[in-house]
Write a structure and sequence with these properties.
The protein is α+β, with helices and mostly antiparallel strands and about 950 residues long. It is built from 17 helices and 49 strands. The strands form eleven sheets. Strands 41, 42, 43, 44, 45, 46 and 47 form a seven-stranded antiparallel beta sheet that branches. Strands 18, 19, 20, 21, 22 and 23 form a six-stranded mixed beta sheet that branches. The longest helix is centred in the last third of the chain and has 33 residues. The two termini are about 35 Å apart.
């Protein structure tokens, strides 16, 4: 009979009811006896021992018991104390792991407990106090340093050789090193029992003054530039009298450079200048001088009536020279690509001459330049033209305005046109009461593309034509003639009311005409913003709600126009009129300031956001503000927050909006996208906005969904009944840099429930039963043990009577255990992770301690717990300042070893899932990955690796079972 058959048979054997009752009561009696005995046994109640301590510190150990006893403390099995305390100052050769045993004895027996203490190695390091500066002005350099622990020797290594520093005491070393001028890399080293601490110092030694090359000398013309070129970066000074460097009166505008230039404001004559320079190391060159003579050649300025470009006509030219000349100067004009033309000059006085420039109507568009030449009384010839050298002409008339309309309007005629040209600057409007409008009927000038003619009378027909005028003043052909007749007189009073005086009517017309232009601009802005096709600009328009703001501004302008028109029927004094117009003008100005004309995206940056633990803590404080809760419930709340699966992506945009009042306003827009793979019910999102972004919440324009302001600091809150895909947006005026925006934090938390509102005070003060509780006069620890024993007995009795009420069992069906191999059942991995609160506390543990905990947990198949410690160790690794590359690489390798274990366990879990799903492809891939990660784990002792080998055989058998049709996979060694 097999073992399985024997177990099955044993499971089927009947047992009498009386026998089972006797067995149960006997078991309960034994448990009660053991519980009572253990309650009066000697107990160790508190052990004080650090998990890790550094070399050079004092190790303090202690423990207490609930009864009087004799004590011992053992270190790795050797007695170190016969009391319940032990203190020892660790030296710098104590690194390693130590197991301390705490033992207590009395008449009730002997008890002991152990703790492992890791003594962390304190690497040799030193503080290099001298030299403090890299730039040295002496060849003899002092080296002075203090080591953290006693070193055998400290020395320098450089191109000057190896020099041992003097040892003044256990940790103080100094000495001097002689170096030549130049750049030197000096390696300072200290040695202790073969352990080396190194720091490299780059020194620039310079004891030589800079060399100087000074100009000008001899004769120079037109202008004198004092120039000094030094052999090294220096600061130079100059003066017209001899002095030392510090006494020279003027400084060159350039400092710490090789080239120093200064344009001298002097007239013709002979000058001597003295110069001295000091390099960045303080070395000063001797004062040197240069003597030169300045001669200024004659120059000219040209003045021509009108402004560029000029149209057809004759233009008077005036030539002014800087000094008297021997004879008439010469002046010529040359257009690009054409032959030069001389311009005859007439002398007006000793320095002024006149000429004529003729522009023919067929010249077209050209750019010309003048050439001047004149000889002064000293014989110097000058050719420089200080002003007016270029001459631009444009004789090409604009084309005809083809689209021109005149429409009857209320109180006047509305004119509009379209002209597609780039060179026009304004339009001439011509009006007549008869057909045949020509250039003699000039009426007005406008720069827009519409015009409202209010100076009209009812039932009178007006004829109009328009012509484009370019920058040169060329008037284009007249448009086709259009006519219109107003519907009613502009100044007609209604209902016999008073009429505004004619003088004020004229002033009002000007106001309304200017306002009509603003209204046309607003109408065009609304249309352009709504029809915007560019993807980036249309996004900005929608985000900032610019089209709606433009439409609001348009309505304000239209209301202002109605107000102005209403003045026409009022009998107002000039003072009353001005007061009313001023009030309306304020409305117009406000509307223009709020009317966006265009928007441009300056730049964008996008990043994934992860809230820090400090941000989480701040958000939790706001979420639970006003609620009294126990620490455990607070920790559970934080853990629940960590369970929320919400990804936050932040987009930062910088934009610029131009308004109708010509103001260009920049904006910083923050858009945060919250995305969750599964709906998150009853959550809140708390946005913590840094002061660098906005001082107060009231300074922020929250776009779309409006949050609750928790604090003006600012902190705001959004609430979601169900969160899957949400976006929050806000903006401020001005440019806020992306690094400042990244200081903001969006934290998603569960919505605090009613259970957090009220917590009994005694529970909030302490969640555990205090030591004041007693049972039968015993201490709290003894009473608790008996109490737990009674609970166990009651539980067993309940379980027993449940068995009595159940029917007799039939044949036992063995459950399928996919992780059982050859009678060995592998425990399912623990999926309850270490809480974030605990993790934050453990982040303060030494890096080695974090790694050891991670290895222990993953060997116990506690994957999520181990993963937390791996991440904590990885974070600590990035923050450490490593004394040596060798130690850094060693820790890096250990991190990789732990990562390999985590990856191996992940593959094993996926393989188990594949078996449940009958997925042979996934199972095959997981087994291949297991082999790769197992090789990275290595052949050392690892419970996880032993488990993986057993699981691999099981996976292989299951894979063959899944491929039972004939395809079998042979396991690889």
């Amino acid at each position: 009979m097999t073992l399985q058959d024997s177990r099955a048979t044993a499971m089927k054997l009947p047992t009498s009811k009386g026998t089972r009752q006797a067995q149960w009561f006997a078991l309960c009696f034994i448990i009660l006896l053991v519980t009572v005995k253990s309650a009066f046994a000697l107990m160790i109640t508190d052990i004080q021992a650090p998990s890790a301590i550094a070399e050079g510190q004092t190790l303090e150990l202690s423990f207490t018991t609930d009864e009087t006893a004799s004590y011992r403390i053992l270190e790795d099995g050797s007695e170190v104390s016969t009391t319940n305390t032990y203190s020892v100052l660790l030296d710098y050769d104590s690194a390693g792991l130590y197991i301390y045993t705490f033992e207590a004895s009395n008449a009730n027996g002997t008890v002991n407990d152990t703790r492992t203490v890791e003594v962390l190695d304190t690497p040799l390091s030193f503080d290099l106090r001298e030299p403090q500066e890299s730039d040295q002005t002496t060849n003899i350099i002092l080296f002075d340093l203090i080591t953290n622990i006693e070193a055998d020797v400290c020395y320098t290594v450089s191109d000057a050789g190896t020099h041992t520093l003097d040892k003044w005491n256990a940790t103080h070393h100094n000495g001097t090193l002689t170096l030549l001028d130049g750049v030197h890399v000096v390696s300072v080293k200290c040695n202790r029992n073969g352990e080396l601490a190194v720091e490299n110092v780059t020194l620039k030694v310079d004891t030589t003054a800079p060399g100087m090359a000074i100009t000008p000398s001899g004769t120079v013309h037109d202008q004198a530039i004092l120039k000094v070129v030094t052999t090294e970066a220096s600061t130079c000074r100059y003066d017209t009298t001899y002095a030392s460097y510090n006494q020279l009166g003027e400084s060159f505008s350039q400092s710490n450079t090789l080239i120093h230039e200064e344009e001298l404001d002097i007239t013709e004559g002979t000058y001597t200048y003295y110069v001295a320079c000091k390099d960045v190391y303080g070395n000063i060159a001797s004062t040197d001088s240069r003597t030169f003579t300045l001669q200024i050649r004659p120059s000219a300025e040209i003045e021509i009536e009108g402004e560029n470009p000029r149209k057809t006509g004759n233009y008077v030219l005036t030539l002014k020279v800087s000094e008297a000349l021997q004879s008439l100067p010469t002046l010529a004009l040359k257009y690009q690509g054409e032959t030069e033309t001389a311009i005859p000059l007439t002398e007006k006085d000793t320095t002024t001459y006149e000429g004529i420039v003729i522009v023919d109507e067929n010249e077209g568009e050209k750019v010309g330049s003048f050439r001047f030449e004149g000889r002064d009384l000293d014989g110097l010839v000058g050719t420089r033209i200080e002003e007016g050298e270029l001459f631009v002409i444009d004789t090409i008339k604009p084309v005809k305005v083809e689209t021109f309309n005149a429409v009857n309007g209320t109180g006047g005629v509305n004119l509009s046109w379209y002209f597609d040209a780039e060179d026009e600057v304004h339009y001439n409007l011509y009006r007549s009461l008869e057909l045949g409008v020509d250039y003699t009927h000039y009426y007005d000038t406008t720069s827009g593309d519409s015009y409202h003619d209010r100076d009209t009378e009812h039932a009178v027909r007006y004829y109009y034509r328009i012509a484009a005028v370019d920058k040169a003043g060329n008037v284009g052909p007249l448009s086709d003639e259009e006519w219109a007749s107003p519907a009613k007189a502009v100044y007609a009073a209604t209902g016999g009311g008073a009429i505004l005086s004619p003088v004020l009517q004229v002033a009002l017309d000007e106001r309304v005409r200017a306002l009509d232009i603003d209204i046309l601009d607003a109408e065009r802005a609304v249309s352009d913003l709504r029809a915007e096709q560019d993807k980036e600009r249309s996004w900005l328009i929608a985000t900032l709600d610019l089209a709606s703001k433009a439409n609001t501004a348009l309505r304000s302008l239209q209301t202002a126009r109605e107000s102005l028109e209403s003045f026409r029927t009022l009998d107002l004094t000039e003072e009353e009129f001005n007061t009313r117009v001023t009030s309306v003008q304020k409305t117009i100005n406000d509307a223009r300031a709020a009317l966006p004309l265009r928007v441009e995206l300056l730049n964008q940056a996008e990043y994934d956001e992860t809230a820090s633990e400090s941000s989480l803590e701040t958000a939790v404080n706001h979420a639970l503000q006003g609620k009294t809760i126990a620490e455990k419930e607070r920790a559970d709340y934080i853990d629940a927050a960590h369970q929320l699966d919400v990804r936050v992506t932040t987009l930062v945009s910088h934009a610029e909006v131009r308004y109708a009042n010509t103001v260009e306003q920049s904006y910083t827009i923050v858009e945060k996208h919250l995305l969750s793979g599964t709906p998150q019910s009853n959550v809140i999102a708390i946005e913590i906005i840094p002061k660098a972004f906005a001082q107060r919440a009231s300074d922020i324009d929250f776009l779309g969904t409006q949050p609750i302001v928790l604090e003006e600091d600012p902190v705001v809150q959004y609430t979601y009944d169900s969160l899957t895909d949400e976006t929050i947006r806000y903006a401020v005026k001005g440019i806020v840099g992306v690094p400042d925006v990244r200081q903001s934090a969006l934290v998603v938390l569960p919505k605090p429930g009613a259970s957090l509102d009220v917590v009994p005070l005694e529970q909030a003060e302490g969640e555990a039963i205090t030591g004041a509780v007693s049972l039968f006069g015993m201490s709290s620890g003894q009473g608790m043990i008996i109490f737990l024993g009674i609970i166990i007995i009651v539980g067993l009795l309940v379980y027993y009577f449940r068995l009595q009420s159940e029917p007799a069992p039939g044949p036992i069906q063995q459950p399928v255990q996919p992780m059982a191999v050859q009678g060995v059942t592998v425990a399912a991995p623990s999926q309850k992770p270490v809480t974030k609160t605990v993790l934050v506390q453990r982040m303060n543990e030494p890096l080695v301690g974090l790694l050891l905990r991670g290895h222990t947990l993953i060997d116990d198949t506690k994957y999520l717990d181990a993963l937390y410690f791996y991440k904590a160790a990885l974070n600590r690794y990035g923050q450490e300042e490593w004394p040596s590359e060798r130690l850094q690489n060693s820790v890096k390798d250990e991190l990789g070893h732990l990562h390999a274990k985590l990856s191996l366990f992940d593959c094993m879990s996926k393989a188990h899932d594949a078996i449940v799903l009958e997925d042979k492809e996934q199972l095959t891939a997981s087994m291949e990955a297991m082999r790769e990660h197992a090789m990275r784990v290595g052949d050392g002792e690892s419970r996880l690796l032993d488990k993986a080998k057993v699981d691999y055989d099981y996976f292989y058998n299951q894979l063959n079972r899944i491929q039972a049709e004939g395809l079998r996979v042979k396991p690889e060694n």
